[in-house]
Amino acid sequence: MSLTRIVLLTGAGVSAESGLGTFRDVGGLWDRYDLADVATPEGFARDPALVLDFYNARRANMRAASPNAAHQALARLQRAWPDRVTLVTQNIDDLHERAGSPAVVHMHGELGQARCAACGHLWPAPEAMSPADPCPACTAPATRPDVVWFGEIPYHMERIGAALAEADLFVAIGTSGAVYPAAGFVAEAAARGARTLEINLAPSDVADAFDDRLLGPATKTVPAWVASLID
Ligand code: APR
């Protein structure tokens, strides 16, 4: 099959070996925090300092981490096949970009970006954010990380839908398939005729929806898969 359009979807598993941890594995973030407190608009309204501290800690972890071989292999694929690979990520870290990926569709936003909840202004997030920080544009003390919380609409859904509609291969990498709409992308792509491949440490919640699967740590499976395509 000639591969003319590939859509990649990554999740926390692609950054796990960079030390950023995942959400739902044993000891993951949602074992240590109640997501209702730190990843919902209601939690932010209740205790903005707790939420900003949660993301300040994740931002510090991100800045201390380095991209791994999986991020680098995906960047290599994008550079080898420009305009044929759409990289969508649920991750809010910047490891794909730091590995050299030329374009990354962050459907859940970005830890490195701040947003004003009052006027919508966006700017590069400082090291640490606090509820008293004034918005650089409207000065309201309403700053938040530019990340998509549960109950909010993910970003770039039209662009993602268009890419899925014309994909001939959809590959999910390091995601549990626990959260929609991302978990539904495999069915969307398959319905339009794409082949589907899951690359994961263990079968995801939607594993049965995939034609093929590669199991193992992303730093091993992803470089091998990319090499099988372009070497
Ligand atoms: N290599 C490959 N896959 C791995 C590795 C690894 N080294 N380690 C873990 N994984 C896989 C797990 O098997 C699991 O399928 O990564 C996945 C992690 O699942 P989650 O923790 O649920 O992360 P993710 O799928 O990205 O979560 C989706 O949920 O909480 C929200 O917004 C958050 O974007 C996140 C979304």
Report on the structure:
The chain has 9 helices and 9 strands. Helix 5 (69-80) runs parallel beside helix 9 (218-230). It has helices at 29-32, 35-38, 41-46, 48-64, 69-80, 95-98, 157-165, 185-191, 218-230, and strands at residues 6-10, 85-89, 105-106, 109-116, 122-124, 143-147, 169-173, 195-200, 212-215. Strand 2, helix 6 and strand 3 (105-106) form a beta-alpha-beta unit. It has 231 residues and is α/β, with parallel strands linked by helices. Helices cover 33% and strands 19% of the residues.
Describe this protein with a few key phrases.
single chain; alpha/beta; Rossmann fold; SIR2/SIRT2 'Small Domain'; 2 domains; six-stranded parallel sheet; three-stranded antiparallel sheet; 33% helix; globular; binds adenosine-5-diphosphoribose
Briefly summarize what is shown:
The protein is α/β, with parallel strands linked by helices and 231 residues long. Helices cover 33% and strands 19% of the residues.
Per the CATH scheme, the topology name of the largest domain is Rossmann fold
* CATH C-level of the largest domain: Alpha Beta
Number of strands: 9
Instruction: Give the neighbour order of strands across the main sheet.
Output: 3-2-1-7-8-9
Please identify which CATH superfamily of the largest domain we are dealing with: TPP-binding domain
Please state the CA-atom Rg, rounded to the nearest Å: 18 Å
The end-to-end distance, rounded to whole angstroms, is 16 Å
Number of structurally distinct domains: 2
Give the CATH architecture of the largest domain. Answer: 3-Layer(aba) Sandwich
